[in-house]
Amino acid sequence: MKLFFASDLHGSQDATEKVLEHYRRSGAEHLVILGDVLNHGPRNPVPGSYNPPKVAELLNAYKQEIIAVRGNCDSEVDQMLLEFPMMSDYAWVMLPTGQRLFLTHGHLYNSDKRPPLKQGDVLAHGHTHIPVAEWQGEQIIFNPGSITFPRNEFAASFGLLEDNRLSVQTFDGDVLASIEL
User: What positions belong to coiled-coil segments (predicted)?
Assistant: First the structure.
């Protein structure tokens, strides 16, 4: 199983095009979007290429391949533009290793406020815009960072699950964080 993770697109057309280009090249089976898809949110500046209708159009072309959850900037109005469901606060993915992958944005569930997880499960979230792939207690915490508004001087990044390894990578190919399942 190969999954491609993106979070916090915030309506940026340029960021979305870059994500989709790398997603296609990755050969991943699914594009996992961890929220904040179309809206920039009141705490963020408007991205230079802010174009939510175009972002929706670009993503809708991959609607059969997308697994998405709602972020704190996503609304029912956003869902009206998208042809794939993205209003759930979380989703579960069962991994071939027997571990569970809990997908959420991070504003409701995160490393400090975890859902009921078993030892070895993975909590995957965005929201903080900071890349993470590490054990924290009995679970793995995974955050692909942000495409549009990376923080703490990190480069724009995405995540991959491939060959039982979770990694966060920049668009230049640098690995920011990586962990074996």
Answer: none
Q: What is the mean pLDDT of residues 33-57?
A: 92
* DSSP secondary structure code for residue 63 in this structure: T
CA distance 109 to 8: 16
**Confidence band, pLDDT 50/70/90 cuts, at residue 79:** very high
Report pTM.
0.96
**E strands within the chain?**
3-6, 30-33, 66-68, 90-94, 100-104, 122-124, 132-136, 139-143, 157-162, 165-170, 175-180
- Tell me the pLDDT tens digit for each residue of 35-45: 999 998 888 88
Q: Residue 36 gets which letter from DSSP? A: -
CATH fold label, 3-180: Purple Acid Phosphatase; chain A, domain 2 (3.60.21)
Residue spans per domain, the chain:
3-180
CB within 8 A of 163, min separation 6: which ones?
none
Query: Looking up tokens 């809708």, which residue turns up?
Result: 60
Q: Which residue has the tokens 């992958």?
A: 101
- To which residue do tokens 């965005």 refer? 126
| Contact status, residue 150 vs residue 171, Cβ threshold 8 Å | no
**99 and 93 Cβ atoms separated by less than 8 Å:** no
